[in-house]
Design goal:
The complex is a heterodimer of chains A (854) and B (107). Chain A is α/β, with parallel strands linked by helices. Chain A has 25 helices and 37 strands. Chain B is built from no helices and twelve strands. In chain B, the strands form four sheets. Chain B has a four-stranded antiparallel sheet, with no helix packed on it. In chain B, strands 1-12-11 form a three-stranded antiparallel sheet, with no helix packed on it. In chain B, strands 7-8-9 form a three-stranded antiparallel sheet, with no helix packed on it. Classes of the chains: A alpha/beta (854), B mainly beta (107). Chains A and B meet through helix 16 of A and strand 2, strand 3, strand 6 and strand 7 of B. The complex binds siroheme (SRM), flavin-adenine dinucleotide (FAD), iron/sulfur cluster and FE2/S2 (inorganic) cluster.
Chain lengths: 854, 107
């Protein structure tokens, strides 16, 4: 059977979502699907467009997994626009000259930025803010500009202003109305927002009607002329004065267009031509089009369901929103301006903390009609649920927005209070009932819920609520999430840590006898070995601990693929003297070690035979080297830049600090390895933000970042505290290290630990900076003990001759492993490959019987 | 069956393994506890083709004892040499005898 041809015009957020719906529902098998994508790339996350400027690249914003369209047999024409629809012939025409017939057509053409007819709005210094291409142009222009203005003080305008600010130009916002964000905020809210924005240096001009932009000026390239006669010189202008549905091709094809624009659709998202659907921002339902993504997603769902013959309807959408604009939290729910008849308000305003909150409530005080939140949106989730589900308000509705010190005993709106129909994630239309079902089906972590239901994978605003619902459901069903480290212990690493400390347990045997079962395994043995070392700081190779360690810890070196070891001495802060380097060179020469600079700013010697390790380290420790713990779950190094001592930009002595820190924490066993970085100024040559602890010098001291990671899933660290003096900095790091050691899971880097920590870096700040848990004194004294216990493991090992027997390869012979063979390469050598050692092995490589006895 | 004496059992620290050279062959000996019980397997990790198994961690799964390779953690049964991860792979295991504290292995 010939497949029916279904063409989707527009590959934006909604167009792509529609295709996902087709694929998920299996419909994609019945249709031949063709997509026209005008932009030079497939669908990307326009909602997070601005993050393109911070750390995203265009490809990171993409919504389409590599190979997704190909794998599902979907044909996408990238960079190709549909110019005409011939409805009679059911044929499309593209700007590339393509002609194509369709059976079903879906218009998902989005909207375009509307620019007011101001003279000069076409100049080369004029921009809009909608696509990645727009942002690239703005970025280029900003490089040769000192100042820029955004025309339009609405939601998108302020977002654009944030981008200009981040690009480092003097930023102006020009608004026609007397207040900012008039659509989402009331007057007081708008004023509060304005104060906050001005404080961070954005210049706000309200009640300004721009008449003309002249391409000349004394101090800048352009001059804006306003109706009140005033002028403003800026280098470039970004217009963010509203959007209009992209309905041109529909209009030409004589489809019905709504009176305020937009392709008119019914509840099934069909246009007046039953074979043509319109979804997303280009569509108008009940004379209304929606400039948010969630209603578009809902339309995508409905249009797909209609093809399947299912009866789902689009019934309008809620326009409540929670945003962070220029660093200011803003929330708007329902009737924010209090226009409903007979409504009444409750207002809380705090000028010290720059917070404004207002509730708009029905006359009888029972129902929430709207809310405005500026400066603090922590109540947003609860209020939205009260509003959407028309839940009866408490007797004193103001208690919902008052802080606790003002007598607001917040009525806890537990997830239990919500009906099953409550929409938890509006981006993907996931209800509380859907989440309960997923939990019942065995998806018991937020990550699993996310991948199973898609909830939380859009704007992410619903994640806290998903967590609440999940926990409530888990509690109800009595499911406990199993975080036992292995079959021998019914405890998490964190619980084991406490058991060791509280019970003053010092050996694995005591531990498994008291709290575990069986013999132990390759998971619990090293984990408990590491906990014992973190708690009591004993030598990892003390006899009672030897059997617990992975071979790396056991022979104090990293085992390489051929069974030899690496030798990586400490070079604190990356410093090494010429003399010490000389000894290192001589050792490498004498023991024929392959030598390279490691990725962590020090020297690695590779290919050492196990029985050579003690003598190699003997010579290195004699020359003043210590072990670099490259084999251990412990601090590896503090990477530094030369800082103020040498660099013309440096503002603090980063090497000095790095080396002091590395020496302070060396040897302490941590749940996973740790890496520090210290940069002497904001240029960040030490890449400190990619480290577990990252420190960047400022004029006033040090900024402390935590939870950075290079490696498998790079993550920038979160700023924990700024402008610290060294003593405070060290106190915070002490607490951070001990808190991490006590609470992290086994082999959990700080980045993952922090991502999983409820409340994230804000919570961590409360613990470390505000001592909210009251445990800091304890953390500090424990770490002092560990620091005092430090000893170089290699020095200790060498001075205990009895422990050296283990380094021989054979228990009954002085011979060496003849399977360790090298091949020369680039003036050094590398381990020989199997086929080099055994030029013609017989049979399957894995199962070949190796006969190498004489 | 001829047993070759290797060493005194005290030379194998409880909970660890050592490697012995027996008739030119590398054999890993494991002593899971302080009892007089020792297991013998090939020392070569069949995946990495390196002589490292004696340096692995002894572990218990499904009520049986295994050695986890120090390279990529595949586990081999101390009694049979079977691999837990990949049933098509197994290494040789050898009978061990302990007389008056002397460990002897038969190839
Ligand atoms: C030797 C070295 C590569 C080199 O030739 O430069 C190296 C080698 C190994 N790395 Fe690495 N890493 C080395 C720098 C890095 C860096 C760069 C850095 O430190 O700035 C990173 C990324 C930064 C980071 O960790 O955030 C890095 C991220 C990893 C990861 C990923 C960790 C993660 O959670 O993302 C692993 C895997 C793991 O630890 O589970 C890993 C694991 C390993 C292991 C231990 C794998 C293994 O089990 O055999 C490698 C053997 C080390 C050895 O033989 O001594 N290595 N590794 C570097 C030793 C640095 C040192 O002087 O101690
Ligand atoms: C900076 C910014 C921030 C935003 N923040 C939020 C937010 O926080 N929350 C929120 O809900 N929404 C936000 N939005 C709005 C959100 O991005 C849109 O609602 C959403 O992208 C609409 O999806 P769409 O698919 O309908 O349109 P679009 O994503 O615009 O996609 C339409 C696509 O169709 C293409 N196209 C048009 N005509 C044709 C044609 N004839 N042939 C081929 N292709 C064509 C267009 O080039 C475009 O790529 C933001 C938007 C911007 C610009
Ligand atoms: S980070 Fe700053 S001080 Fe350090 S080397 Fe770079 S520019 Fe110089
Ligand atoms: S509401 Fe946006 S992801 Fe759930």
């Amino acid at each position: 059977m010939e497949k029916l041809k279904l063409v989707v015009v527009g590959n934006g957020m909604v167009g792509h979502r529609y295709i996902e719906e087709l694929v998920d529902s299996g419909l994609s098998k019945n249709y031949q699907i063709i997509v026209f994508c005008e932009e030079p790339r497939v669908a990307y996350d326009r909602v997070h467009l601005s993050s393109y400027f911070s750390h995203h690249t265009a490809s990171e914003l993409s919504l389409v997994k590599d190979g997704y369209y190909e794998a599902n047999g979907i044909q996408v024409y990238i960079g190709e626009r549909i110019t005409h629809i011939n409805r009679k012939a059911k044929r499309l025409y593209s700007d590339a000259g393509r002609e194509l017939d369709y059976e079903k057509l879906v218009l998902a053409t989005g909207s375009y930025p509307w620019v007011p007819p101001i003279k000069g709005n076409q100049s080369k210094d004029s921009f809009v803010y909608r696509t990645i291409e727009d942002l690239k142009e703005i970025e280029n222009c900003a490089k040769r500009s000192k100042s820029g203005a955004v025309v339009g003080g609405g939601l998108l305008g302020l977002e654009a202003a944030g981008a200009l600010k981040a690009l480092g130009v003097e930023t102006h916002v020009i608004e026609f109305a007397p207040v900012l964000m008039a659509e989402q905020l009331d007057q007081q809210g708008g004023l509060q927002l304005r104060r906050k924005i001005e404080k961070i240096g954005v210049k706000v001009h309200t009640s300004k009607n721009t008449l003309e932009v002249l391409t000349e000026g004394d101090t800048a390239r352009n001059t804006m002329v306003f109706a009140d006669g005033s002028k403003l010189e800026v280098d470039f202008v970004v217009y963010s004065t509203g959007i209009r549905p992209q309905d041109k091709i529909a209009k030409e094809a004589e489809l019905d267009i709504a009176s305020r624009g937009g392709i008119a659709i019914n509840d099934n998202c069909q246009t007046n031509d039953p074979d043509i659907y319109a979804i997303g921002e280009c569509a108008s339902w009940n004379e209304r089009f929606y400039g948010l993504v969630a209603p578009g997603y809902k339309m995508a769902q409905v249009a797909c369901a209609h093809l399947l013959g299912k009866n789902q309807r689009f019934e309008g959408a809620d326009m409540s929103a929670k945003l962070k604009l220029l660093g200011v939290n803003v929330g708007s729910i329902g009737d924010a301006n209090g226009k409903s008849e007979d409504c009444k308000s409750y207002v809380y305003q705090n000028d010290d903390e720059e917070v404004y909150k207002r509730l708009i409530v029905s006359k009888d005080g029972r129902e929430l009609l709207g809310a405005v939140l500026v400066g603090d949106t922590s109540d947003y989730g609860n209020l939205l649920q009260l509003y959407l589900n028309k839940i009866a308000l408490p007797e004193h509705p103001d208690s919902l927005i008052l802080p606790s010190h003002a007598g607001g005993e917040k009525p806890q709106m537990g997830a239990d209070a919500l009906p099953d129909t409550a929409v938890i994630c509006s981006c993907f239309d996931v209800t509380k009932g859907d989440i309960s079902q997923a939990v019942a089906d065995g998806f018991t972590s937020v990550a699993q819920i996310k991948s199973h239901t898609k909830a939380g994978t859009g704007c992410g605003g619903c994640l806290p609520l998903i967590g609440q619902v999940l926990n409530a459901e888990l509690e109800k069903s009595g499911i406990t999430v199993n975080n036992h480290i292995c079959e021998h212990f019914d405890y998490s690493r964190q619980e084991l840590f406490h058991l060791v400390r509280v019970g003053e347990i010092t050996t694995f045997e005591q531990m498994i006898k008291r709290h575990g079962r069986g013999y132990g395994c390759e998971v619990c043995k090293p984990a408990i070995g590491s906990i014992l070392a973190s708690c009591w700081g004993e030598h990892v190779l003390a006899p009672q601990h030897v059997s617990l360690q992975d071979t790396n810890d056991n022979f104090l070196g990293n085992m390489q693929k051929d069974g030899t070891y690496s030798v990586i001495p400490r070079m604190a802060g990356g410093e090494v003297t010429a003399k010490a380097l000389g000894v290192l060179a001589q050792v490498a020469e004498d023991y024929k070690l392959y030598t390279k600079i490691t990725g962590a700013q020090r020297v690695g010697l590779f290919g050492a035979q196990k029985d050579d390790l003690p003598t190699i380290w003997g010579r290195l420790t004699d020359a003043g080297f210590e072990t670099g713990h490259a084999y251990a779950k412990a601090l590896r190094m503090a990477k530094t830049c030369v800082g103020s001592t040498w660099c013309r930009f440096g503002v603090q002595d980063s090497v000095g600090l790095g080396s002091r820190l590395e020496n302070r924490y060396k040897g302490i066993r941590t749940p996973h390895k740790m890496k520090f970085g210290v940069s002497g100024c904001t240029r960040e040559c030490a890449e400190a933000q990619g480290k577990d602890i990252g420190i960047i010098a400022t004029d006033a001291g040090w900024n402390l970042f935590v939870g950075g990671n290079g490696g498998m899933k790079p993550r920038h660290g979160d700023l924990l505290a700024s402008d610290l003096d060294e003593a405070t900095l060290i106190r915070y790091i002490d607490c951070f290290m001990m808190f991490y050691i006590r609470t992290a899971d086994k082999l959990q880097r700080t980045s993952v630990w922090l991502e999983n920590l409820d409340g994230g870096v804000d919570y961590l700040r409360k613990v470390i900076v505000d001592d909210q848990l009251g445990i800091n004194q304890q953390l500090l004294s424990t770490i002092e003990e560990l620091i005092a216990n430090y000893h170089c493991e290699w020095t200790t090992t060498i001075s205990t001759p009895a422990s050296l027997d283990r380094f021989a390869h054979f228990i009954n012979s002085d011979q060496r492993d003849d399977n360790v063979q090298f091949v020369s390469e680039r003036e050094q050598h590398r381990p020989a490959r199997f086929d080099e050692k055994f030029p013609s092995p017989k049979g399957d490589i894995l199962h070949v019987e190796l006969e190498y006895e004489a | 069956m001829s047993f070759v004496s290797v060493c005194h059992i005290d030379k194998i620290f409880p909970g660890t393994g050592v490697c012995a050279l027996i008739k030119g062959k590398q054999v890993a000996l494991f002593r899971p506890s302080d009892n007089a019980e020792v297991f013998a397997l090939d020392n070569m990790d069949p995946f990495a083709k390196s002589n490292v198994l004696s340096r692995g961690l002894i572990c218990e799964h499904n009520k049986q004892l295994w050695i986890a390779s120090p390279l990529k953690k595949q586990r081999f049964n101390l009694e049979t040499g079977d691999c837990l991860e990949d049933q098509s792979v197994s290494i040789k295991s050898y009978p061990v005898k302990i007389t008056d504290g002397t460990v002897a292995v038969s190839l």
